[in-house]
Amino acid sequence: MFVQKCRKCSKNFRWTTIVTSLLKGLGHPIECLNCNTKYYMKMVYRVIITVLIPLPILFHNFLYEIFKSYSSLFYIIWIFIIIVLFPFFVRYDTKEI
Fold first, then answer.
1. For the ranges 45-49, 61-65, 92-96, which has the lowest average pLDDT?
2. Is residue 39 pLDDT above 90, yes or no?
3. Whole-angstrom distance, CA of residue 61 vs CA of residue 56
4. 55: pLDDT confidence band, cut at 50, 70 and 90?
5. NCBIfam families of this UniProt entry (predicted)?
6. Pairing label, strands 30-31, 38-41
7. How confident is the model over 44-70, as a mean pLDDT?
8. Where are the beta strands (DSSP E) in the chain?
């Protein structure tokens, strides 16, 4: 559960760089600050994020029964947790997929 390293120079990517990549769009590449190699998010992680973000919406009625008027707050916290943990699980590759 570590932030990925560059394959050429072994320098860790910054957490903020990966989060910025997520917020700009799932297809947005990141660039190594040391050797300027571009990395693209692997397709499997794009699919996982695309499924995880709207997941609570599918269970809105169930969540509303549990949290009542706090279901919107739960959804905001859910997205925040995904964004915070995202850089530790996602992997990038040098080839655009």
1. 61-65
2. yes
3. 10
4. confident
5. cxxc_20_cxxc
6. antiparallel
7. 82
8. 30-31, 38-41, 92-93
pLDDT, tens digit, 9 for 90 and up, residues 6-21: 989 989 999 888 899 8
Beta-carbon contacts of 89 under 8 Å, excluding residues fewer than 6 positions away, are: 1, 45
69 is a domain residue:
yes
- Looking at the 3D structure of the chain, how many domains does it have? 1
Tokens of 84: 């915070």
Question: What is the rounded CA–CA span in Å between residue 61 and residue 46?
Answer: 27
Look at 13 and 97; give whichever has higher pLDDT: 13
- Residue 22 counted as domain residue: yes
Distance in angstroms (rounded) separating the CA atoms of residues 61 and 38: 42
What is the residue range of 85's domain?
15-93
Taken in order 63, 66, 68, 69, is the CA torsion positive or negative?
A: negative
**Separation of alpha carbons 90 and 43, rounded Å:** 10
